[in-house]
Amino acid sequence: MAEDSAPPAGAAPDWTISQDWASYSSEEHAVWDRLFTRQSRMLPNRVVPAFMEGLDVLRMSKSGIPDFDELNERLFRATGWQVVAVPGLVPDAIFFEHLANRRFVAGRFIRTPDQFDYLQEPDIFHDVFGHVPLLVHPVFADYMQAYGMGGLRAAKLGMIEALARLYWYTVEFGLIRDGGDIKLYGAGIISSYGESLFALDDPSPNRIGFDLERVMRTRYRIDDYQQSYFVIDSFDDLLRQTRDADLGPIYERLRGMDTIAEDAVLPTDGLLHAGTQAYAAARASG
Ligand SMILES: [Fe+2]
Fold first, then answer.
1. What separation in Å is there between the alpha carbon of 122 and the centre of ligand 1?
2. Cα(225)–Cα(244) distance, rounded to whole angstroms?
3. How far is Cα 250 from Cα 244, in angstroms, rounded to an integer?
4. What gap in Å lies between CA 156 and CA 35, rounded to an integer?
5. Edge-to-edge strands of the sheet including 206-209?
6. Which of 14, 128, 187, 193 is the most buried (most CB within 10 A)?
7. Which CATH code for domain 21-284?
8. Which pathway does the database say it acts in (predicted)?
9. How far apart are the CA of 2 and the centre of ligand 1, in A?
10. What is the spatial distance between Cα 162 and Cα 260, in angstroms, rounded to a whole number?
11. Cβ-based neighbours of 51, under 8 Å, separated by 6 or more
């Protein structure tokens, strides 16, 4: 998230801009279509079923970059959420304020063909394909709003970092139980072909049952696949553990505690899979 609080030229005070859908080139629409086809073929048995339902409700299989006006009509009808375009990363307070009001901020640009598998700043494919389908799910939709409201409170208490880790390990890189299986729901995974395979199948990362305080203390990778993933039981359970928890005393405890390394396994963890960390070790040794 950006630190500067003044919106860039051309953006509204709340940092939103027009999506200007008509200005996308046919090459840009084609990049979306290629990414969409690859992910939507691979995901069905890997992703939480609510994600596929969201794609369907929002008619996202329609060719080309989605037009936010069309998308918002269906999304708003489903859960009262909307997608708004922003020029890039926005300050924390702006981000939380939008979420608290059921607005999801999305970049309007799309990656170029040579950035097909990796780019640092979230583009419209990550933001819209990765995040928006689950906003159709009523409980997940409530969680996202609760997160925004929690963010506004955490900012006042100086606890943004702890809350950012919660976002990272749920909204971006979360796994969820589905019957006897583990499935994907985090947008950072869902929008990445490589990580959609790695997060579920690779023996390298830890897979650990979700625990709010544990997650809020755990550092994360921004440069590569995660070394630990946290598995929630259900969206209901996630909402219960976060919105309904009294975070004040939790924050007080966290202030006196060290952070936890990305790859650590603690004796108190509900460990589902002890990662070999072979992938991270191989990357570190170059
Ligand atoms: Fe994201």
1. 6
2. 31
3. 12
4. 39
5. 181-184, 175-178, 228-232, 206-209, 271-273
6. 128
7. 1.10.800.10
8. Amino-acid degradation; L-phenylalanine degradation; acetoacetate and fumarate from L-phenylalanine: step 1/6
9. 14
10. 11
11. 43, 133, 134, 184, 185, 190
